[in-house]
Amino acid sequence: MNCEEFEELFSFHECSSPNGLHSPLSSNARTNSCVNTSQKSDLGSSTGKREASKPPPTLTLDPEIEKKLYDYQKEGIEWMYLRHCKGRGCLLADEMGLGKTVQVSAFLGAMYRNKLVTSTILIVPPTLIPMWEKALLEWGGLQPPLLEVLRGECDKRTQRLQRLRHGVPCFFIATYGMLRQDGVIMSAQMVDYVVMDEAHLIKNASTRVFKSAMSLSARHRVAITGTPLMNNFEDLWGIFQFVDGAILGSSRAEFRRTNAILLRGNERDAAGRERAAASQQLALIQMAIRPYMLRRGKQQLESVSAAKRDLIIWLQLDDTQKRMYTSLSNGDSEKQVAQNSAACEPFLLLTSLMQTCNHPWLNLDDETYRGSIQNPFQHPEGGPELGNVFSSSKIAAGIALVVKCISENRKVLVFSRSKRMLDLFGVTLMNWLIDFMRVDGDTAPEERLDIVSQFSEKNNIWVLLLTTQVGGIGLTATAASGVVLLDPSWNPSIDAQAVDRVHRVGQTRDVVVYRLITCGTVEEKIYRNQIFKSMAAKQGTAGAEGVGEGGSVEFHRYFTRLQLRNIVDIGVLDHSETAIHLRCLNPDSVLETERSSLLSLPFVCDVSDNGCILVRSTDDDENDEEGVNIRSVEPCGGSLCQYHGDKALRPVKRFRPECSDQDGLSEYF
C-alpha cells in the first residue's frame, strides 16, 4: 500500500473510545473540525487561481545545487513536493545531522524558481537565524530583498509584513518570540508556506506559541525537527495538529488518554493486557502519521555518516561530593520536602542533588562562588567540607578523557548544563595547559559561528566548552571527533542534539562519545528515564523509518513504574545497578581491552554501551509468569544472570559481589 492510500485510509476521525483511539475511518467520514481550514481554504486569496492549477509532476532543481545534494536529500525534496501536490502538510523528522535545513532550503528555492511559491514565513529559534540565512542563499538561491529577517520593534515588523498584503514575493524569517508577540499580525494574510524549525517547541498545546502557530494562515505547513517525541506521545499530537489537524483527529484530552495507555505499556511491570492495548494504540498512530512524516536515521545512511561509539562512564562520587550528597538525601531537607506539598521544595532538593553530582561548589550562593572561583585551589568561605576545584569526580574523569582524546589526535566538545561547571572545568584545563574556547548563553549568536570556526581551524585549540542548551543546536563542529557530556539532561534528545554537533554529515572520522553519570544518584535515575523516553521516541517514529510495517515495534522493557518515579531516593554509591543490568543484556558490547583502559581512569567504576540500549524485546519479555522460558546471559566475570518474564533480574551463580542477592536489582527491574 502506498503513501497516498495510507493518507485516505488512516486519517483519524475526531472521536475515540475511553480506552484510546478508534480504528481509522475513511476520509468520507471526517468531520470539518478535523481539517486545518487555514491550509484548505483559498477564499479571498489573490493567488487562488495559481493554486488551483495542477502542479508539474516533478520539481526541477538548479543543476548546480542538485549535484551537491546527497541522494537521500533529493528524495526528501521529492517527498515534500509530493505532499505539496496532495495539498497536505508534512513533518521532516530526519535524525539530527542529516541536513534538514539544506533539504528545506533547496525545496523552497526550487518552488520559487518554478513559480509555485511566492510567500513563506519561517519560524526559527533566534540562534539559528544566521544558519538559515546562509542555507537559503547557498542551497535555495534566495537573497535579499526577496529574503528578509524580521528585526526591530513590533511596529517595524508590522510594516515589513505589509509586503504580503501587496503581493510582493517575500520569504520572511522570524523567531518564536516574534510569533508569540505578532501572531495576530502574521496570521492576517494567507501565505504559501509556513515552516516551523525545531517544531518540538510547539508540542505543548497549552502554550501561547502553539496557539499563535495554529492561527497562521497558510496553504501548506512544514514542521522540521529531529526530535518529534521528546517526553511522551502527547508531543506528537501538538506537532501534527499544526501540520494538519486531520492526521490524528482526536482532541487533546482524548489523545492524553491514549498517551497514558502507551506509557503504561512501556513499563516493565505492565500486565499483558496493558501491553496489548499499548501495542494496538501504537500501531494506529504509526499508520496515521506514516504518510506525513519522513524520518531517516544515520544507520540507514552509512555511506554518508561516520561510525559512532557511545559509552556511559559510570563514576563514583568524590569523598566531598559523597558527604554532601548523603547529607542532602538523608538530612533535614528531605523531611521538610516530605512535609511540604509545595512543588518548589522537591524541585530545590532535586536541583541541589544534581548540582552536587557535578561539583559541591555549584550549590554556593553567587557571592561566595564568585570569591571561590578567584581562588579555585583553596577552600571557599564555607569551610574545607566544600573542597576545592578538584573536589569532583566529574572534573577528574572529564580531564582524563580529554587528555585521552588529545592523545588520539581528537578535538573534543565538552558539554554541561551548568555554566559554573564549565567555569570549573575551564580552570582545570588551564592548570593542565590545555587551550580551549567556550560558547554559552552569554555568547552573542553572531559570535558563536566565529568561535566554532576558530576552534575548527586552529591546531592548538583542542577543546570547546559549551552549555548543552545553547551549543546543542545550530552549530556544526565536525573538526572534533570526541564528545564529553559532563551531566545527563532530563530529555535524551537534548543530549543527542549535542552529540550531533559532531556526528553528522561531513564528519570524516569515527566519533567517540563519553557520557559521565554518577552511580546510585539522581543522575542514574535520570539516565533510566532517558532509556524509557528513548524507547517511546523510537516506537513513535518507527513507522516513518520504515520499521514495523506489520505492526508496532517492541523493545526490551527495563524499568517498573516504581523505579521510574523514586527519583530522589539514594542508591548504592559505589557501583551502578543499571550498568550491571545493561551488561547482562549486552555482555559483549564493550571490549575487555576498552573497558580496562577506561576503568584505569580516576573514579571510573564501570562502562556501558549506550548504543545498545534499544534492543528488540524477545518472547521472554512478553510472557507472563506462568510457563515462560528462561534466557541466560553471561556478563563479564562469569556471573550468570537470568530473565524470568516480568520478574526481576536474579543471579544464578555469584562469582563477583556486584551480582549478589543483596544488590537490590529486584526493586528496579
From TrEMBL:
Residues 81-246 form the Helicase ATP-binding domain. Residues 27-47 have a biased composition (Polar residues). It comes from Trypanosoma vivax (strain Y486). Transmembrane segments: none annotated. Keywords: Hydrolase. It holds the Pfam family SNF2-rel_dom. Residues 27-61 are annotated as: Disordered. It comes from the Eukaryota. InterPro entries: Helicase_ATP-bd, Helicase_C-like, P-loop_NTPase, SNF2-like_sf, SNF2/RAD54-like_C, SNF2_N, SNF2_RAD54_helicase_repair. This is Putative DNA excision/repair protein. One of its GO terms (molecular function) is ATP binding. Residues 397-554 form the Helicase C-terminal domain. The lineage of its organism: Eukaryota, Discoba, Euglenozoa, Kinetoplastea, Metakinetoplastina. SMART domains: DEXDc, HELICc.
